[in-house]
Amino acid sequence: MTAATMQGVKKTYKHFTLDDISLELPVGQIMGLIGPNGAGKSTTIRILMGLVHQDAGEVRVFGHRMPEGEVAAKADIGYVSEDMRLYGGQTLKWHMGFIASIFPGWDQAYAEDLLRRFDLTAEQKIKGMSHGQRVKASLLLVLARMPRLLILDEPTTGLDPVARQEVLAALMDVLADEDRTILFSSHNTQDVEQLSDSITFIDRGKVIASDDKESFLDRWRRIRLEVPNGTRVPTIAGQETMQISGHISVVTTSNFSEASARAYEASGARIMAVEHMTLEEIFLSNVSASRGRALQ
Amino acid sequence: MNSFMIKKLIFKDWYFNRYIMLAYLVGGLVALAVMFSGGTTAFTIGSILLVTAIVSLGCHLVLGTVVQERTNQTLPFVMSLPVSVQDYTAAKLFANFTVFLVPWLLLSVFLLSIMSSSQIASGGAVPIFTLMLFWMVITYLIMLGTALVSESEGWTIVAMAVCNTAFTLVFMGLNAIDGIGGALLNQPDVVWTGASLSVLAAEIALIVLILGLTFYFQSRKTDFL
After folding, report:
1. A9 and A145 housed in the same domain
2. Which domain holds residue A246?
3. What predicted TM-score, i.e. pTM, was given to this entire model?
4. Is the CB of residue B82 less than 8 Å away from at least one CB of chain A?
5. Taking CB atoms and an 8 Å limit, are A74 and B80 in contact across chains?
6. What is the pLDDT of residues A149-193, one digit of tens each?
7. Which residue of B has its CA nearest to A74?
8. B8 interfaces chain A, CB cutoff of 8 Å
9. Which of A72, A143, A221, B107 has its C-alpha lying 20 to 30 A from B184's C-alpha?
10. Are A96 and A148 in contact (CB under 8 A)?
11. What residue in B sits closest to A150 (Cα-Cα)?
């Protein structure tokens, strides 16, 4: 079953276009949406929430066509974004009561457990809280209402390491529920790597790669080659970037195999090292390759 | 429309603005006390205070509940709930309008009742005062509609400045109309002429029009955050 789908979604602004975005988020999956600032992550999420209407394409959340089905869909969505604030003049307890009165699935025992775990005081006014406490309060409010889909738009931005770890730990607990689907946007690849099953890279309004996390980590390699004079390194299928420095060439490939290694060697180049890449390095190579293709 | 959520949002705004409503009501009552404490000077000062109280209430509500919801970034929290833009607009208009109308209505009833009473005997001014009170509702809705539709603090402040500047001009204009102002103001009894009733009907029509236009422009929005 699919929690959310986007098919050929397009949205044009004066200086930015979200172009042909297609995503599929199966129930129970945690998808990390990674992109630099201004890549279109928040616009994509807002379209998914029905808060921004797409110019073209189809969006469905739990079968509800968006934006028409916004109200029904949002009953099952818990949304926290970096730019979301609670009412400063009210206490967290007031917010908890407000949310509990709206969502019948509100779990008070779980809310109190989260209060303890996040070290929050329900009677404290939001304006007296630190940024980290506010993020944790927002997260408490969405987690305790037990949404089927959690959409988190850069929730860890600006958090100190301790608060960040607490937030990630709480999310890890949520992941134990196999029916819970999460879309997690960030430009922090470490957070996404820690949580996600699948990853979508987005840059300049386009999805540049989308796959499950393990596939990304398995297929991507950095190959260091020593290239003698007169030898030309061939372009092998899957080769994304190549940097040349004297006799040393560094190639990144999105489709590494023994065959591709042999092809480099057959050209006369010597393989000095084949290295696994971190998600951040894969992301940067993806962006670099995508922008390079766009220039060609 | 999602009436359950609209009610929740209305109750929320009422709860947030309960003390504001009370404070301006008390302020308005003090202004009324000054108005009718005796003498023309006190009446003039009291009138200015009353107008100030009602206009300030409108500005306070618009800035506090619409503009600040954006600048304080609480709007994403509200819009993450199961509400549409139409639900949000309906709740905002109803909550704001009622928070404004309660003090406005009480102060208007007190003011016009006192003016109509035999002791004060300034019933001739009741129609023009009524029309100006309705004008304050119109200016409040213009400010509220501008804040909702434009989503801009700047445009809202422009609307406030224009509306408040227009207040004196509207009063002067109405006073110049035969059957509303002039000598009629000195009459002890309340006289509703065709002219004053026509202007009142036009004001009510304008209120309905502003509400309709606010809904119309809000429903056409494709981006809300």
Report:
1. yes
2. 221-276
3. 0.85
4. yes
5. yes
6. 999 998 888 888 888 888 888 778 777 766 789 998 988 888 888
7. B82
8. yes
9. B107
10. no
11. B80
